Amino acid sequence: MILHLKEYVNRLKKYSQQLDNFAVLTDQPWVTNFDNPTERCVYIFRNKDSQLITSTNGNVKKGTWDYLPSMKSLLIELGDKTTLYNQGFLDNSIMILRRDGTDEHQLFVNENKIETTIEKLLQKVEKNYLSQTKTEDVSWKIERGEKVVKFISDSGELKIFTRKEQGYEVGDKIMVNNKVPKDGKIKMGYWNYILVENGRIKKIK
Fold this sequence. Notes:
Radius of gyration: 22 Å
Shape: elongated
Number of helices: 3
Low-confidence stretches: none
CATH topology of the largest domain: Lipocalin
Order of helices and strands: HHEEEEEEEEHEEEEEE
Structural class: alpha+beta
CATH architecture of the largest domain: Beta Barrel
């Protein structure tokens, strides 16, 4: 898993949050150092006073961290060791940092987001962003015999391409804010919703 972090970052870096998004970075239990299965190592970047707390199997050390905006990097001081890490990828589930001047990447995982295994979480995050790209890069064009029905929903402006004289039906194409939406539910009212799959209406409730 660790060997492929560089390629993982290259695929997802355009979706990354910035390290100065402290709402994502700070006061979260970031688990790291997965090479040793007998150790549980957690980093907590405290927002208050830029304090860094690490716990390895319950043994706590304190240090400091600082964000360097000119380099988009974190400077981490722990004990007698100070390390500069460049931004790789960050969201609310995973963080990947690269040691400055090297190809050495370090994985941090938000413990609150782990459902089963680290590998499955990495796959889930990647699938979410890449499937989003596939849908956002596609838009529908009106075809002969179709009309566009427009609605305003909690998700934004809906456009449904239908051949039905009134309303719309299963199989119709749909766009949200001029983009093909991701698979899932779109609320149409307090109780009603449309289930979308591959840019088309799969179910109306």
